[in-house]
Write a structure and sequence with these properties.
With 125 residues, this protein is mainly β. The protein is built from two helices and eight strands, in the order ββαββββββα. The protein has a domain at 15-94: Phosphoribosyl-AMP cyclohydrolase (Ubiquitin-like (UB roll)).
C-alpha cells in the first residue's frame, strides 16, 4: 500500500496515531508515527510507532506479544492525524489494561479506574 503524498507531519516529522478496536470502536491508545513507521505499519499490517522518549521505532507488542493487526487506516480532514482500526491481541496499555484510557475523571477531580485489567505488566515487561 502506498503512502499518500499529501500527509502533514509536525516540525519533528510526526503525526498522532489514534488506535481503535475495529469491532467495539473503543480507543485503545494514542502514539506517534513518522513516515517510516506508517510505511512499516502498512507493509506488515501490524502497528509500528516512533518513540519520542527513546528516539527509536517500536512494533506494538514486540516485548509483550500484545500485537495490533491493522484492519483499516483513515486520515482526518487536515491529513495530519491517522486513525487505525485494529484487532488487539491482549492489552494495548503497558499498565496491563485493554485500553490506555482506563481512568475516568470523577466530579471530585480524581481518577476512578474503569478499565479492565487484562494482564500483569510485572510478568510481561
Amino acid at each position: 500500500m502506498k503512502i499518500p503524498e499529501k500527509l502533514k507531519y509536525d516540525e519533528h516529522g510526526l503525526m498522532p496515531a489514534i488506535i481503535q478496536d475495529y469491532r467495539t470502536k473503543e480507543v485503545l491508545m494514542v502514539a506517534y508515527m513518522n513516515e517510516e513507521a506508517l510505511k512499516r505499519t502498512l507493509e506488515t499490517k501490524k502497528t509500528h510507532f516512533w518513540s519520542r522518549s527513546r528516539q527509536k521505532f517500536w512494533l506494538k507488542g514486540e516485548s509483550s506479544g500484545h500485537i495490533q493487526m491493522v484492519k483499516s487506516v483513515f486520515f482526518d480532514c487536515d491529513n495530519d492525524t491517522v486513525l487505525i482500526t485494529v484487532s488487539q491481541k491482549g492489552g494495548a496499555c503497558h499498565d496491563g489494561y485493554r485500553s490506555c484510557f482506563y481512568k475516568k475523571l470523577t466530579d471530585k477531580g480524581d481518577f476512578k479506574t474503569v478499565g479492565k485489567l487484562v494482564f500483569d505488566p510485572k510478568k510481561v515487561y
